[in-house]
Amino acid sequence: MKPLKYYFHHLFKKDNGDTSVKTKNINDSFNYLQKKLEENERVFFVRFGDGEFVTLMKRNHRNYKYNENLDREIEQSFNIKDPNYLISCPINYPYDEYIAKGIYTQFSWQQEMIDLIKSKKFDTSFIFENPCIFQCLTVFNPKKLKSFLDTHIRPKTKMFIGSTEKEIAEKLYGKIDYYIQIPPKHAYETIDTWWPQIEENYKNVDLIIPSAGSTSNVISLRLWNLGYHKKLIDFGSVVDAVDNKTTRSWIRLQGHKTLKLLNDKPKISFKERVVFLLKDIKFYFRNQFI
């Protein structure tokens, strides 16, 4: 059931602003990704968020400092034009049933991002994918996302590139055949030390999961240019929620919903059940209006 604010918005409000950049809603983007995975051997789902645009604006980010080479490779990644290189963009989210404060909403400074896209003459002739599909489905439809994981992720031979411990990542993604550990921050600064492990082993897996912040876009770019002909999917911060890292507001509000994604669910104490229930009740009523 959609929240009350969804009906209010569509009855009384009109979406204004610069619509030169278009992004799919959550369901359309998720369904399109599934279709692509089923029909194509080679598919990359590449997430561009606010952090990537901070770098393209030549500013420092909270998790990494500005790097000219990172800037260059992020821009190259955004400029790849191929129907199987799915670029997601954090701009002009359609007002769908998933809009919720702290979970999924438009950035207050999105016009700056649009202006940057125009100044760099990025291609905007197509509709971008939605970068928030995994966190939104975790919160609002974990059953649907679990089915996706069971079908497209867990059975595959895979490589995980990130700072989350292997055992934690395997709770979400299933067996990891090649685990590439990177620093939790400033990953690009050390890329020359861990990239050779990727280059040595990428041909041995059917799926690669980068979990490296903005450096995930660099990994995607390089693997695409190397001719990696299988699947690459950036899931964003869902694995942080499994690891109880409150790195995002959505995790603080509803991160416990990741428990519903897991096949081997951990034991939950009575106190934790009460805390989760209270969080759900509070979030439900809050979400009807904001």
TrEMBL record:
Source lineage: Bacteria, Pseudomonadati, Bacteroidota, Flavobacteriia, Flavobacteriales
Every Glycosyltransferase GT-D fold domain range: 45-238
Name the record gives this protein: Glycosyltransferase GT-D fold domain-containing protein
Pfam families given in the database record: GT-D
InterPro entries assigned: GT-D
Domain of life of the organism encoding this protein: Bacteria
